[in-house]
Structures are given as structure tokens and as C-alpha cells.
Design goal:
The protein is α+β, with helices and mostly antiparallel strands. The protein is 38% helix and 18% strand.
Amino acid sequence: MRDFNLRFYKETRWPDGIEDLMTDEALSKIPENAGAYVLGTTSGKNLVYPWGSSPVFYIGQSINLQNRLKGHRNVTTQAIYDHEELYWWPRYQYGAAFGVTVAWYTVRGTQNPNSLEANLITSFYEMYGSIPVANGTWPSGLRPKHGSRDDPKATSTARNIS
């Protein structure tokens, strides 16, 4: 994953760093600060989304980026060597299959990691029409902008069509 693959957020901000997470040198470059991160394929494999393709498969956040990403690296390594385990989270399955490149963004000013992650996911959704494939749900408090099952207009329209 290269910085141009982060075009969904680059209008707002460039990442503070990008590294192949599976290399030994990567962890020493990742800060212990709070922030958010984007995981993408190292192999160059693009994943298909409704409005385009991207190597990005997961967006997360942490109060300590280095520790969190070290955990991702360890579990991804386990997923590479243990194909019998049936319940690996998708972010680890994608990483095991295609490699893991990480781009990270540290918080600035009064920003917190949750809002930074939410901004990244929302920007991704607005460009690709979906949240990253290995993110199971929207960040807390966020919902898609294009209606939902709880949207009264969407529900009444669905009733009129049936």
C-alpha cells in the first residue's frame, strides 16, 4: 500500500508514516502515541468495493499505536501458520493472505483516536461506498449517510414498493 492509496483521506491529512508491518524495523518506527491506523495489502492486491478498488481492508484506533500494531502483527503471524483455526478475525485473514502495510495518523491537538478513526472510516465510505471489508461495524455513533433500516423515509419507501 502506498500513500496514493490513502487518497480518500489525503485531502485532510497525509499519514505520519507507512511501513510493512511484518518487518522487524516497522515497530521501531511506529510511535507509542494515540492515533488511528489503516491496514492494507502489501502484495498490491486491491479489494473490490462498490465504487472502486483499494488495498485497504481495515481501519482502527488505539491509545498506543505501537502496542496495538504489535498485537496485529503477532496475531497475523499466527494466522499465517495456523490454518486450522476457524475463528481468526477477517483483518488477520486478509493480512495473512496478502501481507500487511500500515499507515498511521497520530492525534493532534484535542483530537482523540476515536474521532480520528471515525473520520478515516467516513472518508473511506464516501469514496468507496462501503466501510473497509474487515471492519465489522461502523464506529460507535456513526451511521451511513444513505439511509438505514431505522430511517422512516427508507422504511415507508420500502413499504410502498412491496
